[in-house]
Each structure stands twice: as C-alpha cells, then as structure tokens.
Amino acid sequence: MNVLERVFYGNTLLDWIIAFGIIAVAFTILKLLKRPVLKRIKRFTERTSNSLDDFLYLAIETTVVPFFYYLAIFVALHYLNFNTKVSQVLKVAILFVGTYFILRLISSFFSYVVYRFLDKGGTSEGKQKQARGLIMMIKAVIWILGFVFLLNNLGYDVTTIITGLGIGGIAIALAAQAILGDLFSYFVIFFDRPFEIGDFLTVGDKAGTIEYIGIKTTRMKAISGEQIVFSNKDLTDSRIHNFKRMLTRRVVFKIGVTYQTTAQQLKQIPGIIRGIIEPLDKVTFDRSHFSALGPYSLDFETVYLVEGPDYNEYMNIQQRIYLEIFQAFEQEGIEFAYPTQTLLAGNAFVREREPADQ
User: Fold this and answer.
1) Which of 15, 60, 85, 200 is an S-S bond match for 243, by CB 3.0 to 4.6 Å?
2) Structural domain of residue 315, as residue ranges?
C-alpha cells in the first residue's frame, strides 16, 4: 500500500498533508501581504483628516487579519473528514471563534462612535475616563446578545432564556430603583455635560473639583482636602454652580469713608479707584460711584470684571487693588469709616468708637 494512502484518524496521509499545506501556504501569504498592505493603508489614513479610516485600519489590523488566519485553519479542517462527534466539536469551536471576532468588531465600532461623539466637544482625558462606564455597559449588552445568538445557533431554545431575562429584569428594576435612577442620571451627565472631570463646582454648601464620574456615584475633592461622594441622581437634582466654565467674574466691593471727608476728596475717590483698576492685566473696570449716605460712613460702590475662572488669580488681583486703595487714601488724607456714635454736650460733641461686635 502507498504510504500516502494510509489512514490516520479517518483521513489518508495525503489528506493530512494537503490540509497542513493549505494552512502553511495561507499563513505564508498572509505573512507576506500583511506588512505591505497595512503599511499602504496606514499611509492613506495619515493623508486624510477624518478618523473613520483610522478606526478601519485598527479594525483590520486587530480583527480582520487574525480572522483570516482563523479562516485558513477552518478551510483546512473542512477539507478533512471526521466522525460525527469530532465534527460537532469543530463546528461549535468555529462558531465560537467566528462569533468572538464579530462581537469584537461590533464593540470596537461602538467604542469608536462614543469617542467620536466626545470629539465634537473637544477631547480630554477627563472625558475619556467619563466614557469608560458607558462603553463598558454597551460592550456588556453586545456580548450578552452575542451569547444569546450563539446559543440559538447551537440549537438551544432561547425563548425561555429571553423570557426569564425579561421577568428577572423587571424584578431587578423594582428592587433597584435607586441604582437605576443613578444610572439614568449618569446618562444625563454624559450626554448633557453639565460638568466634566476637572470642573470646580459648588453643590449646596459643598465645593470642590470633580475627580471621577462613575455609573452610580460622582466623586469630588473638597477645598478642605477630603473626598465627597455624591450619587448621580443627587447631582442632577441639585442646583450646580460650575465655576470652570465662568468666562468672567464680576466683582462688587464697597468702601466707606468718614463724614469728615471734604467734598473735594469725595470727588477724587472714584477717579483714584479707576486709576488703580484700569491698568491691571485681565481686569476690566466697570464703574465706581458715591452710592450711599450710611449711618456712620459715606459709601462708594465699585464694580470690575476679572477674566477667567481662576480663584487664586482673582484673590491676587483683589488684594492688590485693596492695598493700592489703602496707600492712595493714606497719601490723600482720606480716612476709612468705622462704627461710631456722637454724644452731644452743650456746644461740644464727643466722637466715640463703638465696640467691634455692634
């Protein structure tokens, strides 16, 4: 008998040689074509401005090329004859691997869509961290549906499974209403973007910087250093002040001078304050007026605008303005007012300072 006609595991030696030859030739061709083809596709994607071709290149490199290797093995094994049990095992294995590659491609596409959505508002590391929870949920749904599809193709009745999932889902929804409320609030935060990681917020009497946005909770680092954990629903139901998005800060301050100040000095005060504020960088002077006759002072109200949301920079500017006002008033002999009362005694009067707590 010819050696090539000898039977091993239901197939002749020649059949085994042909099968392994198909695998070897296919792998060699793929190996030779992989680098130049991918290199040419890469050059094409670098010349374009859109990101879709970049996604397609990545999908080809990580999913399509490995799928062709798997396809070569499938064709080679399909050439051979096996008994019913082995054929069934190979069929299941082929179905598993094929489903895996398809689901991987679909989940990668949905990840691309989510990140593409984020690109419209300008990408940042914070936004990408925020999107991870949503991507994780989408991938979980895709893989669950893929598993149900796989069971259906293996001959199992998935109707009972789907019905069970529906009833179980209703029971879980009733038992976890708070969790679902936080989950839907997460979607509101993600798509509506009232705030993002890195934004400085005040929520009620709490203030701090957003560090993490999760599916159920959002974490804020308070000014005093501790971490504050909010449920997502609490945040979406609250009035939030987002200082990170503040383009300008309007500052109003009042000063009072004594009633012994002369009319000429009173006329000079708005000009003195204007001359101090106008030369400053990132500051726009609005107005300064003699605003009121107070019970123990002549009051002036000043308004100016500071560009940008940085609180430290605002405090530095305010400190500089106050110090220069104090210096200018000292040079002009203008006195700041403080709580006083006047006691009349005949033709004389005595001016006394009131206690600080009055």
Assistant:
1) 200
2) 246-341
